[in-house]
Specification:
The protein is mainly alpha-helical. The protein contains 7 helices and no strands.
């Protein structure tokens, strides 16, 4: 939200982009993930990434967009640069939104997914509010918003890499799957009295 708000205010107030170009930027930001996310699914299958790795990928895209915006903040932006940044950040937002929801559902205890989803929505709303405040408070100065977004993305990457976050570990802890065994299938066979039988 910080990048989106500050970017829109910057291209309207500083770059004086025409209204039809602003509409095109908005359409790119909101509709590009619809086209891009399905193409990421085969890539996810090939590299065998789970929700945590896709979250890291989303944060890397955010660092790319915010880092480029911060580095070239004093240059004269052309319209194709604005569209590229909007497309990159929109894919990052889509990946972060989709795979954070998947990670939450994997790690939520069975029967309490709705409660966790509600709290997750409140936390996301609070984060969007903070991003909007940061993005809109420094009108004409895009440094603060891009710097804050870059720092938040780096913190997210560090937390996901060095903490004990795992979609499989969370699913095991929540009771959705059983731990893998060296022999046999972890899937219970029907009529086995809840014992794991070898298939």
């Amino acid at each position: 939200m910080s990048i989106f708000t500050s970017g829109i205010l910057y291209i309207v107030g500083e770059l004086c982009v025409p209204p039809k170009d602003i509409l095109f930027v908005w359409l790119t930001y909101f509709f590009f993930p619809i086209l891009a996310l399905p193409f990421l699914h085969p890539v996810q299958k090939v590299i065998q990434s789970d929700a945590v790795k896709m979250q890291i990928f989303g944060f890397i895209l955010t660092t790319l967009a915010s880092g480029m915006g911060y580095y070239y903040r004093n240059n004269n932006w052309h319209f194709n640069h604005v569209v590229f940044l909007a497309a990159t950040q929109s894919v990052a937002s889509g990946v972060l939104h989709a795979f954070s929801r998947i990670l939450l559902m994997d790690c939520a205890p069975s029967g309490k997914e709705g409660v966790f989803a509600a709290w997750f929505s409140w936390i996301r709303m609070f984060g969007a509010f903070v991003g909007f405040v940061i993005g809109s408070s420094g009108v004409g100065n895009i440094n603060r918003a891009f710097g804050a977004a870059f720092a938040a993305a780096v913190v997210g990457i560090v937390v996901l890499i060095f903490s004990n976050v795992s979609s499989y570990g969370g699913a095991v802890a929540a009771g959705h799957v059983r731990k893998r065994r060296e022999t046999g299938s972890p899937v219970p066979v029907k009529g086995s009295d809840d014992r794991i039988m070898e298939v």
